[in-house]
Amino acid sequence: MRYSPPLDGIRAIAILGVLVYHIKPAALRGGFSGVDVFYVLSGFLITSIILHDLDLGSFSMRAFYLRRIQRLIPNLLVTILFTLFLWMIFMPPVSVRQVAMHGTWAIFDVSNFYVWRFLGGYWTSNAESAPLTHTWSLGVEEQFYLFYPAALVLLSKLGARKARLWLMLGGALSLGLCMYITGRHQPAAFYLLPTRLWELLLGAVLVSGFSTPKECSFASPFAGSYLATRRVLGWVGLALIVLGFVSISGTSGFPGYIALIPAVGTALVIWCTFGMQTGLAAFLSTRPLVRLGKVSYSVYLWHWPLITLGRSLAVIYGKREIFGSLLGGVAGLVLGWLAYLLVEQPLRKRGPGRRRRLAVIGVLFFGVASCTFLTAVLPTAADPGHLFDQPAYYGDEYCAGRVESASSINKSLRYSDVYLPAMPADRPNDFWRAGGVVKSYGRTSPKVVLIGSSHALMYSKTIDEICSELGISVSFLAVNGAPLLPQADFPAMVFNFANSGGASQFYSARLSWIREWHPDVIIAVDRWDDYLDQDGHLDPNFENQFHAFVSEFASLTHHLFIVAQVPVIDSGNDNMYNLREVVTWKKRRSNGMPELAADSRDAARRSLLGVMERDIRSFPNTQILRPDLLFYQADGSVRYSSGRLFFYADGNHLSQSGSDEARGIFRKAIADSVPVSSRLTPAVAPR
What is residue 648's DSSP assignment? Predict the structure, then answer.
């Protein structure tokens, strides 16, 4: 099959989008759609290769799979092994175990299932921080290779028209499934082959007709009198790819119909450049793009582990995250190029010595698989020296919406050592419809109502115990991931309410219940820095939103308490790593308890608090509670422990021990605000 330089140029465009996005997502928020470009191109090339061999009468399943093994496996194995060694040297032990487990799944071409099951959506902190997350796309592609060659051979015997119709029908069904599932379970639509198949088949239908193998002709789809039109459409296709890079985001319902933008753009570019002499073909054939395209697979493999390592080390050691990302991106380019020269190219040759090269690949496969598997099953502990008691977190018991199972949460590195109570299998996902999680300790309807996000829930057990002690009924109307201000729109809402309508219904129900009860106390807690951008700038709508919220809710209660956010400790890659493990790991390296600073947005949080304090001056019954002050040392570092008590469940949520540190603040606020007439007597109050 003849070589077409523009195809390497398309690869270069795709890898540039992915690389820029991974280094700094805000710089090219849709750069991840470069993977969709790869899919369409891959479907085109694989179909072309198979039809070319069928045309020559030389197609062999064995030969096809041996070529795929030589092309894809060696570099992947070396990348996984090198990543595992880097994590063993530089990162905490529990994270090494996760890399090993993920690597084992990636070796057997099911990384997409691992990411979907254990790391969650593509834009979650777990997925964005794991060094092998990017191998999900290889899993999809390699699963496609398992069934497609045999299917194509059978289709080629039906004749060109029927075969093309079957491919188009398969693509249409996959696209419909993709759009349907995206609205209901976006991670499944993103990671799984059935909802991505249409992109690969879109590339396949671009290839020439194949009524019989002998009639295959790569020139046939490009013949005709529409040269000028195709020249224009080629640039339109490139513009669509770029449009996808700059306009698509994680909140735009991707993949769904949005993925048509880069996919159709890629199809147009291929159709208008393959076998064509056009300006676009010449542009894509320039030496820099062709050279980058040739090493694109290797760069794709190597860049992401090094970016995640660079980011993690930068944050752990108090440097700017972008500095680590840039260094990791450059290192990924360099090592990707070296791996292309030293691993990929030598082992993919088919001439003399091929049997020996296949034997080397087999030994490498067995060695890496053994290494990752053994590392994954060996026991590890976050706190091997037992410096602290096990942290506990009870917030999900009080969540008024959907919660994940404790076993699922514990699979993430952040909570691998945190005690989480098991949730009943039949637990409702909409307690908020019935007034939230209500504890009736008093004579009347709830006199204390807790509202907010998971930052409210982390105080729930402490507030529950206070209300139980005082004989005061309380309602917990807080939901994980649901911001306090209903105007805010965060992606986490998709999980917590199953559909967009659920979120608005929740906010309406919350307001309706509070109007009905008119409680003595409302305690409002949120992760306030969610209203800051990555550079620490305040959302321009925040002041108006906050004022409207306080104005409305202060009129519905005798006392509205706004709770300041506790300091955030960044344990690396958006708090991916287990904080207690990071502390004990640093202690072993420095022979002393490490000092942990608040993250880079601490000053911005203080400024935001000033905005809130100025606003509430016009509301006499509104006050800001300051539990955050309990978690700063005199030198400004974070007070994360006391003796054997560890105050944080992760970098921004308090454990139960941390919540109990603030017990006096909440007890005084509640006891001073709820009249005795609304309480049970101590003798009657439930224990």
Answer: B
Q: Is the peptide bond before 255 cis (omega within 30 degrees of 0)?
A: yes
Which two three-digit tokens encode residue 365? 């496969």
Q: What is the rounded average pLDDT of the residues 343-369? A: 93
pTM for the full predicted model: 0.74
Can you give the pLDDT at residue 273? 87
What is the CATH number that goes with domain 395-678? 3.40.50.1110
CA 445, 446, 447, 451 dihedral sign is negative
Residue type, 65: Y
Q: Are 442 and 679 in contact (CB under 8 A)?
A: yes
CA 27 to chain centroid: 17
pLDDT tens, position by position, 278-327: 889 999 999 999 999 999 999 999 999 999 999 888 877 777 889 999 99
CA distance 339 to 342: 5
H or E stretch at 523: strand 521-525
In the chain, what are the domain boundaries?
A: 5-377, 395-678
The strand order across the sheet containing 474-478 reads 437-439, 474-478, 448-452, 521-525, 559-563, 622-625
Asked whether the predicted pLDDT for residue 503 surpasses 90, the reply is: no
| Alpha-carbon gap, residue 631 to 659, rounded angstroms | 11
Residues 202-218: tens digit of each pLDDT = 999 988 644 333 433 44
What distance in Å separates the CA atoms of residue 560 and residue 352, rounded to the nearest whole number?
80
Q: Which two tokens stand for residue 155?
A: 């289709």
Burial status of residue 505 (CB atoms within 10 A of its CB: 0-12, 13-18, 19 or more): middle
Burial class (CB in 10 A: 0-12, 13-18, 19+), 490: middle
